[in-house]
Write a structure and sequence with these properties.
Layout (H helix, E strand, L loop, with lengths): L1 H5 L2 E4 L9 E2 L1 H10 L5 E3 L4 E3 L3 E4 L14 H7 L16 E5 L14 E5 H7 L4 H4 L34 H6 L1
Antiparallel strand pairs: 1-2, 1-5, 3-4, 6-7
């Protein structure tokens, strides 16, 4: 909304006779006044439809095309699956394991960290995979950046996004 108000973005209408029409703030206000929508942003003197698709007209830098290394992103890469026992678990029952333990020179990087359950992590301890007889299900690698990395299947947002995303991106979200 801030970018729309500054004139740095336009809202793309995703329904009706003028589907795909781009609106600036003034025309979005007029359009919002004509449509009944349960998703509205209410102000003192105006109500606006929640924008579903926006187009940036001005931006100051290219987005980083790499996935930030975080605990949650490791879980997402590994699909919330323990890489040793293959159980899919809720986030609060998972932790991170260094495939090559830090005590043996292992680094905290995408290529050395996997998702594990507490039981498997405790069992592996500070051993190398061959010492513990526990090998990760998948070789840990840095995930490729894609626009929807980090969104689970039920978190894709809005059905109208599908019109603008290639099929392979929709399937991998």
């Amino acid at each position: 909304m801030h970018l729309l108000c500054l004139g740095h973005a336009l809202v793309v209408q995703v329904d009706g006779e003028e589907c795909y029409k781009a609106h600036d703030l003034g025309s979005w206000m007029n359009h919002s006044a004509e449509v009944i929508d349960p998703e509205m942003i209410h102000g003192v003197s105006v109500s606006l439809r929640v924008p579903k698709i926006v187009v940036l007209g001005i931006y100051d830098k290219q987005p980083r095309l790499e996935v930030k290394f975080t605990r949650r992103n490791v879980f997402l890469r590994d699909k919330f699956t323990c890489q040793y026992c293959t159980r899919i678990l809720p986030e609060n029952q998972l932790n991170l394991d260094h495939v090559m333990p830090r005590q043996k020179g292992g680094k905290t990087t995408w290529e050395n960290i996997v998702t594990s359950c507490v039981k498997c992590n405790t069992r592996k301890a500070n051993k190398l995979p061959h010492e513990a007889g526990m090998h990760p299900l998948h070789k840990p690698i840095a995930p490729r950046w894609r626009p929807l990395f980090g969104l689970r299947e039920n978190g894709l947002g809005d059905e109208s996004w599908n019109r603008f995303l290639p099929e392979e991106v929709r399937k991998s979200a």
